[in-house]
């Protein structure tokens, strides 16, 4: 199964070669502000169709995660994950005609994972159950 997706203005178009099975939220300061609802896919399952030149990249804190936005309409389309650099988190709301209402949503902890400095955890605890 595959799904097409885009930013709001259509400058960025992509195809997801995967069936989303779970959605995630994140409590890091960036995801909270952009109200992200994402699905995770391996990098081989995300194909750019057009508009790679319309993407702008935002990195913060450790600089490992790479967040991509359309430079024209500002929509967050996807990001390369920090904890799994060979995976993308894809904005589920960018998928065309996709009903996500039956998918489970898992809350992930990003706020403490994103710390930079002496208080970094040795091991990231991974996703936590939604409450």
UniProtKB/TrEMBL annotation:
Residues 3-114 form the CENP-V/GFA domain. Pfam families: GFA. It comes from the Bacteria. Keywords: Metal-binding, Zinc. The keyword Metal-binding applies. InterPro entries: CENP-V-like, CENP-V/GFA, Mss4-like_sf. GO terms for molecular function: carbon-sulfur lyase activity; metal ion binding. Belongs to the Gfa family. This is GFA family protein.
């Amino acid at each position: 199964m595959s799904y097409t997706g885009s930013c709001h203005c259509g400058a960025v178009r992509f195809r997801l070669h995967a069936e989303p099975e779970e959605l995630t939220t994140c409590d890091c300061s960036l995801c909270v502000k952009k109200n992200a609802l994402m699905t995770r896919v391996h990098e081989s399952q995300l194909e750019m169709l057009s508009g790679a030149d319309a993407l702008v990249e935002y990195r913060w804190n450790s600089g490992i995660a790479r967040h991509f936005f359309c430079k024209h309409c500002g929509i967050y389309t996807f990001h390369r994950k920090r904890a799994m650099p060979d995976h993308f988190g894809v904005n589920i709301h960018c998928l065309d005609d996709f009903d996500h209402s039956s998918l489970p949503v898992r809350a992930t902890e990003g706020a403490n994972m994103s710390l930079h400095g002496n208080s970094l955890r040795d091991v990231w605890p991974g996703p936590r159950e939604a409450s």
